[in-house]
Design goal:
Elements lengths: L1 H23 L5 E3 L8 E3 L6 E3 L2 H4 L8 E3 L12 E3 L1 H25 L2
Helix pairs in contact: 1-3
Length: about 110
């Protein structure tokens, strides 16, 4: 019984870690290749799940493209311009979770 609870705890812990890693991934920069892509900038890894219109914040920003942009958090705005898509988020968490389970299996199989 205790072994089953230990496994359950590890599976839930790995699920929590995978959700955290996927949520943190929206902070990583994405490469925008042309100015028109600022309207639909997609963030998140391994499957992009957050969309933001960066044209509001960086529309007059003169840079050479391709250029790396990060997600913008308007602290003084009441309106959030970040849209989250549930299915890509779910699949991103699933991919990371399966990867963590594989790493755990390989660790237990070959190192212990």
């Amino acid at each position: 019984m205790i072994e089953l609870l230990d496994r359950l705890f590890i599976w839930l812990f790995l699920l929590f870690v995978s959700i955290l890693l996927v949520l943190i991934s929206i902070l990583l920069p994405v490469t925008i290749h042309e100015r028109e892509e600022l309207k639909v900038a997609m963030f998140g890894y391994p499957i992009p799940f957050a969309q933001q219109d960066l044209m509001r914040n960086y529309g007059d920003y003169a840079v050479d493209y391709p250029h790396k942009f990060t997600i913008s958090f308007g602290m003084l705005e009441n309106v959030s311009s970040i849209y989250f898509y549930k299915n890509p988020f779910f699949f991103s968490v699933l991919i990371v979770y399966i990867g963590l389970l594989i790493i755990r299996y390989l660790h237990n199989r070959f190192l212990i």
